[in-house]
Amino acid sequence: MAKSSATRSSTRERPAYRCAECGWQALKWVGRCGECQAWGTVEDVASPAVRTTSAGPVTAAARPIGSVDVDAASVRPSGVAELDRVLGGGLVPGAVVLLAGEPGVGKSTLLLDVAARFADAGRALYVTGEESAAQVRLRAERIDAVRDGLYLAAETDLSAVLGHVDDVRPDLLVVDSVQTVASAAVDGAPGNVSQVREVAAALTRVAKERGIATVLVGHVTKDGSIAGPRVLEHLVDVVLHFEGDRHSRLRMVRGVKNRYGPSDEVGCFELSDEGIAGLPDPSGLFLSRRDEPVAGTCVTVTVEGRRPLVAELQSLVAPSPLANPRRTTSGLDASRMAMVLAVLERRAEVALTGRDVYAATVGGVRLVEPATDLALALTVASAARNHALAAGLVAVGEVGLSGDIRPVGGVATRLAEAARLGFSTALVPPGSGAQAPGGMTVVEVADLRRALHVAWRSATVIPLAAPR
User: Whole-prediction pTM value?
Assistant: First the structure.
């Protein structure tokens, strides 16, 4: 009797629920994982059985790596230069790309354009689970994406999608979106953790077996992360984030993971009524055109991936009627701005107590790189003193808590881009070692006080090579 009781106790205490994200186990169901804190990922699992696996037949014999044919994995351009820049040259046969972004940012428009260009020299299959075929056809006519080699199907069942792949035999498969497709072999509604994992695994398996370049559209959560299990990002070869403010024309495709190229590259696009087009030179979108310098503005150069972008920062400082003055940002990191304001008031004696400070970027670009600290400090100081900075000035550098200007990478590339756009003076950290481009005066500033002295319009600019 005692043995039977112990057996029942052991069976009852065996974990019956497991988190699909991290594998955390629990005796009873909970809505939130106790390990990774993810919501809705704890699922009922069957009691595991002890299994052993023996050696079996192989699909292909192992061979020396030098004898493997690399032509089967050659890159094929997608026809959109900015997307090819992020992908590392184009789409690889058998590669699976996950493109995620907020609703309305332009994911479907971009991929429909890519599918149409791909269909000019092959076959492309566009599977939509969110719209009807007629709705996609209307958008295709609007952006001039109607091609004979582009096939369209509106399906939400995984077996039907695989059936279309068998019939069409495409070179490119686009699934919009992976959260709307469900498998009848898995319980649950479309979009839950089990369904997304099964659909992504099945499509990835087919893509690898048949050498089909596949692009999956993914939804994002409220905090901007990709919806679904974390294993989804591990299954695919490339993860791209499509970013952009719905009130701005600018769109950016940012690489997060890439097995075939750089994982930190950025592609820029412009969204309009006629469709979406690449922007090989987007710096002009982030600058304001004016005849005379205005107080509270400064230009910096940020690096997105390997691309330098010239962007303008604007600030406004005004008396505050509140006990706690406002600190409002748009396109900037609020915590980093708070640090720069504290350094300005303490190290450079810029009075900000009892005053509201507003800082924003031009054109909807988001700047999070520390190299933009110096430009932010200059624009706030200019707004606080109501004194415009010198004309044609660009500032690059990280501001430390002691008020010193710290070195940043890629100074030569940043200065070359600023000189190309006509800027004549640049403030850089000491020891940058960058040669001044033709027609530009480069000034090394060791601390924030010297940077403010050089930046005023009435200051005498000291060239880089001149003694101090």
Answer: 0.78
